[in-house]
Sequence to fold (138 residues):
Amino acid sequence: MARARILVADDHKGIRETVVHLLNREFDVLETVNDGRALIEAVRRLHPDLCVVDVSMPIISGIEAAAKLKKNGNPPKLIFLTIHDDQDFVDEAFNAGADGYVIKGRMAADLILAVKAVLGGRTFVSAMESSKPKPSNA
Fold:
């Protein structure tokens, strides 16, 4: 069985390197890019099965890039990898075409699970700290 082909887009080199390290064990990482415009171009050239995309990137944000890919037709599966632990960002990401949403602080635990879920036709969203009950001062 062929390994899934993945493209990684994040504006922080350290994050890109970590993602590649995590994914290379089970998947083929085709390329990494650092902005939304480069993501759109790389998708056009490489036709990946899935993209791991940062929400906040220069030139074109990950959300905008996802919406453009969706509009162009036949987009790859998309997992957003982000620091934004907020339901509004989750909603915006899925409205733009996301299939998964992983919080960077949970990347080591969640990214492989998310990729497998999304490639299997399911969605994935990391547990949100902001949705957990706040301790009371009683």
The chain is about 40% helix and 20% strand. Residues 8 and 32 are 5 Å apart (CA to CA).
